[in-house]
Design brief:
By secondary structure, this protein is an all-alpha fold. It has 4 helices and no strands.
């Protein structure tokens, strides 16, 4: 399951790379910064990214999870810092279901 989730995250970031003309997202890795001080996305792009992920998780994996909820926004360290952190956060959401 984690490989499928990683693939979806990578594909979404690659799509944003084209839309935003940001070559840093063209070949994402687990260490690719997403949001924050060194992030590749501004707040508007992050919202688009999150919406895309939620939709694709639902369509492709039949996972109905909400990534941007009060818990995510109140965490001391953002789950959207980089791909690895996002994967860990998604795993924690899946474990709770």
């Amino acid at each position: 399951m984690q490989d499928k989730i990683t693939k979806i995250i990578f594909e979404s970031l690659k799509n944003l790379s084209d839309e935003l003309d940001n070559p840093n997202l063209a070949n994402p890795t687990l260490d690719t910064p997403i949001y924050g001080i060194n992030g590749n996305l501004d707040s508007l792009a992050l919202v688009s990214f999150i919406a895309d992920l939620e939709e694709r998780f639902n369509d492709e994996l039949n996972l109905s999870i909400i990534l941007a909820d009060q818990r995510a926004m109140s965490l001391r360290n953002s789950p959207f810092r980089d791909v690895q952190t996002l994967l860990q956060y998604i795993d924690s959401l899946i474990d709770k279901e």
